[in-house]
Amino acid sequence: MKKYWRCYVCGDLHFGVKAPEVCPTCLVKNAYVEISSDEAERTTRPTRRTMSRTEFRTAIESFAEKNEFQVNPDTAKVEMLFDGMFANEQNHGLKYCPCRLRTKDFAEDLKLVCPCNFIIHESYKGKEDGECWCGLFVRRKK
Amino acid sequence: MLVRAFRKEEKVSKLIMFHARECPHCKTMMPHVDRLEKEEKVKFERLEVWHDEKNADMMRSYRPVIAPKCGGQLRTPTFFCPETSDVLCGEVPYDKLKDWALKQG
Asked: Which of A4, B41, B70, B100 has the fewest C-beta atoms under 10 angstroms from its C-beta?
């Protein structure tokens, strides 16, 4: 039976029997989660509703749970990053990474929206203690 | 001699630190910058880029120079010397920042 799937990283939608292993849009592995048809419909509808901090935290924790990384256990750091992301959303429209600057090229700047595709970045890839550039996500200790 | 010393100080004073208010790496680097300014008499112009569009535009204007040395992006913190076009980005140990800053003079 076909179901709706959504990429947690970039929001890409897929309708099919199973989720793609690699998101064709952002190239993140295992980032798809099953969503209801209602949510799929809501996702494609233009909206100005923004996530609360709690909702966002739940979303990224759930996203990280299925992957080899986790949300940084340093809560003070995470709170500071949340301050930045939510300020950026209010001032500039999207939850841009607080540790990088947007270029004003919208397509390019989508790469800075949290959570970004950090697993291909040099700060994470191949590093035992890898983390995304801002440090929101860190590689899970084995 | 005095004139030379003054000129040297004036030259070093053109270092820029692009930072962001809610960037934890920038927060970590601030005491290093304070210490460096105190101990070595170098001076950084600290430009916040997420809450000040003028500063953001200035950082963007240096994108062709900065981005190739910072993973292809404009990242914070970025230490930049417009005179030498030398760039240091990210959270680094004090000695690395010091070596970089003194190299610019």
From this structure: B41
Per-residue pLDDT of chain B (105 residues; tens, 9 = 90+): 444 444 444 444 589 999 999 999 999 999 999 999 999 989 999 999 999 999 999 999 999 999 999 989 999 999 999 999 999 999 999 999 999 999 987
Q: Which residues of A62-96 are buried (b: 16+ CB within 10 A; e: fewer)?
A: ebbeebebebbeeeebbebbbebbbbbbeeeeebb
Question: In total, how many domains does chain B have?
Answer: 1
ipTM of this complex:
0.84
**Is residue B14 situated within a structural domain?**
no
Mean of per-residue pLDDT scores for chain A: 89
Does residue B85 lie within any of the structural domains? yes
Q: Is A6 helix (H, G, I), strand (E, B) or coil?
A: strand
pTM of the model: 0.76
Residue B13 is assigned to a structural domain of this protein = no
Pairwise CB contact (< 8 Å): A84 & B22:
yes
The per-residue pLDDT of chain B, averaged, comes to 89
Closest A-chain CA to B56: A101
Chain A partners within 8 Å of B22 (Cβ):
80-81, 83-85, 87, 98
Q: In this structure, which long-range contacts are made by residues A44-50, counting pairs with CB atoms below 8 Å and at least 24 apart in sequence?
A: A44/A13, A50/A89
A35: three-class secondary structure by DSSP = strand
